[in-house]
Amino acid sequence: MSDYDRIASAMTYLVNRASDQPNLEEIAAHVHLSPYHFQRLFCRWAGTTPKRFLQVLTLERGKGLLDKSSSLLDVSHELGLSGSSRLHDHFVQLEAVTPGEYKNRGKQLKIEYGVHSTPLGALFVAVTPRGVCRAGFMDFNSKDELLDDLRIAWPFSSITESTSSTRYVIDAIFSGNAGSKEGPLSLHVAGTNFQIAVWRALLKIPPGTVASYGQIAESLGASNAARAVGNAIGSNPVALLIPCHRVIQKSGALGGYRWGPTKKLMVQTWERMQDEPPNNSFEPPPRPDGP
């Protein structure tokens, strides 16, 4: 098992067992490492301790964040993104496919794709000369299945594999390089007018915070359209960069996510950690009782 696989497995274990509050020894045993070595590895990959990661994995946190975000979508995009998060959405600009492009279904369009390992799991990324057109976790789909979906969406396009051409997207998300001299990271997506409006609204939710489906609908002047908003969010073609993971139910429950509730919690928690200073302190395993 690689270091990446160990950390991914540990994060999944923490998500699934958050209510049990497992200690360091239990988590380390799950990935077959000593507590000391697991702690070091987790800090290196996640930028925080397993204990702090676990603290964020609570339903009450979701409720609290939601309570604080009652006027979230009234805040300007710039003011909402003043933190130090690596996933600065003001480095992301969304360009919708034009009616002519949609009609041509990718004719003379060159699409390059690649699969990359990330702290959150394998990520399939596809780009056009105008920007990112696909990003999705591979938890439930093989590369061939994701390629088939891409071909269905753009049947007349030229699709080739090139991880070197898609690497910049991974660097922008996970290495904090989105604000490079090349300018904002562009998205090149196709959707209905309503879907595009919902996706633009998602970009206004500051990193590390959440909004409800109802709040998104209200921000669009369609307060009774929460279900339609949910459908549009579920159709999001670009994971992470269009942050559908920041939308939860009014009750504070997670709500749906194309890649499953465990992945949604992992993404929320990872993103929350990016605004905190790196924590490289090592917590020793609990001492046994006795003199």
UniProtKB/TrEMBL annotation:
Sequence ranges assigned to domain HTH araC/xylS-type in this UniProt record: 8-105
GO BP annotations, alphabetical order: DNA repair; methylation
EC top class, as a word: transferase
Assigned keywords, A-Z: DNA damage, DNA repair, Methyltransferase, Transcription, Transcription regulation, Transferase
SMART domains for the chain: HTH_ARAC
Signal sequence bounds: none
Gene3D superfamilies hit by this protein: Homeodomain-like (1.10.10.60), Methylated DNA-protein cysteine methyltransferase domain (3.30.160.70), Winged helix-like DNA-binding domain superfamily/Winged helix DNA-binding domain (1.10.10.10)
GO molecular function: DNA-binding transcription factor activity; methylated-DNA-[protein]-cysteine S-methyltransferase activity; sequence-specific DNA binding
Reaction(s) this enzyme catalyzes, per UniProt: a 6-O-methyl-2'-deoxyguanosine in DNA + L-cysteinyl-[protein] = S-methyl-L-cysteinyl-[protein] + a 2'-deoxyguanosine in DNA; a 4-O-methyl-thymidine in DNA + L-cysteinyl-[protein] = a thymidine in DNA + S-methyl-L-cysteinyl-[protein]
Entry keyword Transferase: yes
CDD domains, alphabetized: ATase
Stored InterPro entries: Homeodomain-like_sf (IPR009057), HTH_AraC (IPR018060), MethylDNA_cys_MeTrfase_AS (IPR001497), MethylDNA_cys_MeTrfase_DNA-bd (IPR014048), MethylDNA_cys_MeTrfase_DNAb (IPR036217), MGMT_N_sf (IPR036631), WH-like_DNA-bd_sf (IPR036388)
Keyword Nuclease: no
EC number: 2.1.1.63
Family according to the record: Belongs to the MGMT family.
Protein name: methylated-DNA--[protein]-cysteine S-methyltransferase
Provenance organism: Halopseudomonas bauzanensis
